[in-house]
Amino acid sequence: MIWERTAAIAANTFLEAVRQKFFNALLLLAIALVASARFFQQFDFGAGELKFIADFGFGALFVFGAVLSVFMTAQLFFNELENRTVQTLLAKPLHRIEFLVGKWLGGQLVVLVFVFVICFILAGILWWRESDLLGRLSVSEVGVRALVRYSDIFLYGFLQWVKFGVVSSITLFIASFSNTNLYTIVVAFFVLLVCQLQYIARDAYTATAEGLSRWLLTLIAWVFPNFQLFNVGERMVLLANDGLPIEVVLRITAYGVIYMVLFLALALLHFRRRQF
Asked: Dihedral of the CA atoms 181, 3, 169, 271 (nearest 10)?
């Protein structure tokens, strides 16, 4: 069955990835960076301290998650090519789409573990600081029982995981026609930067651009996903914020899934033409 073979590739990819020193080192570094926010317990920031810790953790999640998505996807793909195991696998009753999707799914499982661990550590730190802050409230504020919406931490992590899925699919698309691991990583990070900042150029020039320039900006806006849509941390976590409506979550998720499918389809198109 196609899904059984794809799942087998994904499982083997997951095991291969978690054994790599790069993943373990990056995970430990990210945990250490998020946990270092406890240093700020010595400053009395009030509720502002919780916002700082949340923003600090979300920033670490994005940086290390993006690095993991690009490096791991490229490395896992080119390991198969360099070791020539891809030839052995494709010689069996295994379709190229099963191989490609299996590698992507295995990588996404690793990223999911990474996101969950970081969110769990961040939630623990926020709970610890929230408990301390609530213990120091004045008598007039004793009715306040919570400051943090903990479900939002994992909801934000899920949205970032969707974004990392887009990053991985873009990396896989570049790898499908690239000849070297280094070229794939460099181009993938360049595309990531464009996706992260393209909204600035769009907002600055779309209103004034005319003719060909306007069409070019519109094309860039459609080709490169707008990662700014996933930066919704300001509206989440603290109970003082309104939170994120479910329709917004679904819309962002659907936006990411569309680009995942698109870039995976383009990767398959190039991978089918590739000779080994």
From this structure: 50
Q: Per this entry, what is the length of the chain?
A: 276
Mean pLDDT by 10 residues, the chain (276 residues): 73 77 75 68 58 84 91 86 69 73 89 91 84 64 65 92 95 90 92 84 60 67 85 78 85 94 91 73
Between CA 22 and CA 18 the distance in angstroms is 9
pTM across the whole model: 0.86
Task: Give the per-residue pLDDT at 144.
Answer: 54
Q: Which two tokens stand for residue 207?
A: 């209103």
CA distance 88 to 91: 5
Report yes or no: 164 and 116 within 8 Å, Cβ to Cβ.
no
What are the residues whose beta carbons fall under 8 Å from the beta carbon of 203, sequence distance 6 or more?
Answer: none
Confirm if 7 and 97 have CB atoms less than 8 A apart: no
- The pLDDT of residue 140 is 47
Tell me how far apart the alpha carbons of residues 145 and 88 are, in angstroms, rounded to a whole number.
Answer: 60
3-state SS assignment for residue 148: strand
Q: Where are the alpha helices (DSSP H) in the chain?
A: 2-18, 21-35, 47-82, 85-91, 96-135, 150-177, 181-205, 212-223, 246-273
What are the φ/ψ torsions at residue 148 (nearest 5 degrees)?
-120, 140
- Rounded Cα gap, residues 38 and 271, in angstroms: 47
Q: Is 180 left (phi over 0), alpha (psi -120 to 50) or beta?
A: beta
Count the domains in the chain. Answer: 1
Domain that holds residue 104: 2-273
Nearest to 257 by CA among 177, 174, 186, 168: 168
Q: Could you give the CA distance from residue 235 to residue 242 in angstroms, rounded to a whole number? A: 6
Location of structure tokens 């690793």? 110
